[in-house]
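For reproducibility, we list the full input for the 6-O-phosphono-beta-D-fructofuranose complex.
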Amino acid sequence: MANEINTIGVLTSGGDAPGMNAAIRAVVRQAIAKGKKVKGIKRGYAGLLQEEIIDMDAYSVSEIIQRGGTILQTARCLEFCEPEYQKKGAEICRKHGIDGLVVIGGDGSFKGAQKLAGLGINTIGLPGTIDLDIACTEYTIGFDTAVNTAMEAIDKVRDTSTSHERCSIIEVMGRGAGYIALWCGIANGAEDVLLPEKYDYDEQKLINHIIEGKKKGKQHHIIINAEGIGHSTSMAKRIEAATGIETRATILGHMQRGGSPTCKDRVYATTMGALAVNLLLEGASNRVVGYRHGEFVDFDIDEALAMTKGIDEFQYDLCASMCTN
Ligand code: ADP
Ligand code: F6P
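The corresponding predicted structure, in tokenized form, follows.
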């Protein structure tokens, strides 16, 4: 059994995601329920290095479960990739009595947690990213809200696209991963979906598909383009020139990262936050909580970071087979 945990720290790191507040709240209240102290670290690893550390009690997380963003703020901190700063981070944790730390973020943030674990600070990672791009888990905090936000926005673009009989390219977030694009492709009934994992950059194929659809009487052509492919505005110009069909680009951008979390994000983030505390109190370290095959599970961070995940082929094919042309 590892050393007894008396004070648990919590931080959010990397891109924010709706539901992070629910996770913070759960960490704080579960720890307090178990008789432990909690400290919030502001602005991710950057705030840790600056000792932006606050005491938290059950009331400091009141009124946040329904709020998007993260009350602890988040940051990207390149310095923390260097051993010198990781050592400093571990020393600061010790100075503030933090013997267990919950890190809410993506794979990059887990690498920081892994380094701190190696330096004697017990760490647990919670998957927080709208991108769903963490291999060890089928669920990440924020994806459900973000994908629903994107879906609703795309429905609206579709209305006007149909009225004007246009082609619309809608760019959704996901620099390295096409999960938001894929899910919206299915949920919005898009004619084409461009994913970084799949797109072969054959624009002529896309153009032929649009012309074919028009000949069959289609009133719009919705293309969902993942941020990782990007260039939606110039793509729209080229498509309009090649097809003669008015084409507009809409980039949804950061609105996908904000907003009140869905019920699923609130419930799963709360469950994961409480599980992180339980794991720390059992003496676990260097673990990440995930959701797989209908169960909340946890993995060694080293193993989790070594896992890979790809786009589900059946779901990808569905985008095409559900389209009438
Ligand atoms: P995410 O956690 O969403 O993947 P990033 O990749 O931007 O986001 O990582 C968030 C932060 O995690 C970085 O700004 C940095 O502070 C920390 N981090 C990333 N990679 C490492 C690493 N190799 N070692 C230590 N810390 C890292
Ligand atoms: O949080 C993930 C993500 O939203 C990616 O989809 C996107 O590429 C990236 O963050 C953008 O981050 P920022 O604009 O905050 O640097």
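The CA atoms of residues 25 and 60 lie 8 Å apart. The mean pLDDT is 97. Both points were considered when choosing residues for closer inspection.
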